[in-house]
Specification:
Two copies of one chain form a homodimer.
Chain A lengths: L2 H22 L17 H20 L4 E4 L3 E3 L6 E9 L1 H5 L6 E8 L2 E9 L4 E6 L5 E3 L19 E4 L7 H13 L2 E4 L2 H9 L5 E4 L4 H4 L2 H6 L4 E3 L14 E4 L5 H8 L1
Parallel strand pairs in A: 1-3, 8-9, 8-10
Antiparallel strand pairs in A: 1-2, 3-4, 4-5, 5-6, 6-7, 10-12, 11-12
Helix pairs in contact in A: 1-2
Chain lengths: 263, 263
């Protein structure tokens, strides 16, 4: 696991994201009205085609690595030294409603811990990358943004975000509402894109529930390399058997208070 | 109220939106950390500066028209023949969290009814315009999209959208939850941008609450000129004394059923 090998992992991740963009964009904002019942929906086609091109690229470069994709399932063992976890379209709701905030997520685990993450928004052409132990990077041809979480926000001034109230399990709602009351304002929607915004210092806290490994894996190196923390709602590191809760925080000194509020 | 005068109204509306973009963009994704307590926040500056340039332009062209802006308040009488209603930044939550889905809204009322509307997203450079009795238009240099609501969706297949559960008054929540159960899926966030997406056939139903005239005025001509309906939750036309509920629907044949579900 040398720096040189990480450079190559990152190059392949960029190639995957470039290929996924080409596969996804033709299906974005395509109407559903002309589809017959047996046809696949645009999001299904985009999902499948983007995952196929990414799997092909990863296999070509790393035939002995394991792989886990939302669409195509698992290949190889999940406790392998190297495991790629990919989600061609994170934010199905956003994609099907034409919002340019869905993302392609690419991550690489080393013995069960995510060490490389890439978040890509194909329409705005924004891309975030993170490698364990290194500062994260933000690439955008048009939009402003600088890596670095907001470090000095008090809890009462914090901008809270969550994808949807509908993803919170009943037993998690009271904790979330307590956190809403303790913070300044809540914005909804965003999926992985909101975590990219947290890494740019635009959002202070994100609390999500019922997330799968492919939903959070790519976010971990990006958030940590921007100065934030990302754990479950108890403050424990995320791993393949995590309970589905995810908590990202731009100002790590707030974390104990947030965990207490959520419980 | 000839066609020629509408052409000129529309030209001025485009000039206003162009000027607002220039005023707003420098403040988007600006950090808050360096501000002292007495400084204005980026969203306050963007709001005020964009409203100022729009008011100046409208006054120059139509010194005898009335005006109502979210920031600068009312000028002239609200029951005048011509009334411009503008909102420099619709979607404060989106703006302050760096999401490219806030909008600038410009509308013109004729004796209390909105007859011209413009929705502009400065970052993605998407713009929608509507004039009463004419087909709406969508302008975008990069994103795909075609004016026309989705006309044949059944209620159980419908994509429902709402900006935030927090904008629903307690007495409106039960109706909204019933509508959620009757539809396929709910996506959150979006403000005026979601109404633009409904006019492109990407969203089927939007139900909002506690909306002010500057929040909905520009949407009316755009939605109606795309084949949809936009009313309050009882199906009544929107006017300056409406109760704050707003209901947009891409398939007008669903409207009676939706109204019944919401009540």
């Amino acid at each position: 696991m040398t720096e040189a090998s990480f450079d190559h992992f990152l190059t392949v991740a960029h190639q995957c994201a470039d290929a996924a963009r080409q596969a996804v964009l033709p299906h974005f904002r395509m109407g559903l009205e002309t589809l017959s019942k047996s046809d696949d929906s645009p999001v299904t086609l985009a999902d499948r085609q983007a995952e196929d091109v990414m799997r092909t690229l990863i296999k070509k470069h790393y035939p002995h690595h394991s792989m886990w994709g939302e669409e195509g399932g698992q290949e190889g063992t999940m406790d392998a030294e190297w495991l790629w976890v990919i989600d061609p379209i994170d934010g199905t709701r956003s994609f099907v409603t034409g919002r340019p905030s869905f993302c392609t997520l690419i991550s690489l685990f080393h013995y069960g811990r995510p060490v490389l993450g890439l978040i890509d928004q194909p329409v705005t052409e924004e891309r975030w990358t993170g490698i364990k132990g290194q500062p994260s990077r933000y690439h955008s041809p048009r939009l402003a943004g600088k890596i670095g979480t907001r470090k000095h926000t008090a809890l009462r001034d914090a901008e809270l975000s969550c994808t949807s109230p509908d993803i919170l399990r009943p037993e998690k709602k009271a904790g979330f509402h307590a956190l809403q009351k303790a913070t300044r304002r809540t914005s909804w929607g965003g999926d992985a894109y909101a975590f990219g915004l947290l890494s740019l210092g635009q959002i202070d806290i994100i609390a999500e529930d019922t997330m799968k490994p492919w939903d959070w894996a790519a976010l971990v190196p990006v958030i940590e390399g921007a100065g934030g923390t990302i754990t479950d709602w108890k403050g424990q590191p995320l791993h393949l058997e995590s309970d589905g809760t995810v908590l990202a925080c731009g100002n790590p000194t707030l974390l104990p208070h947030i965990i207490e509020t959520l419980s």
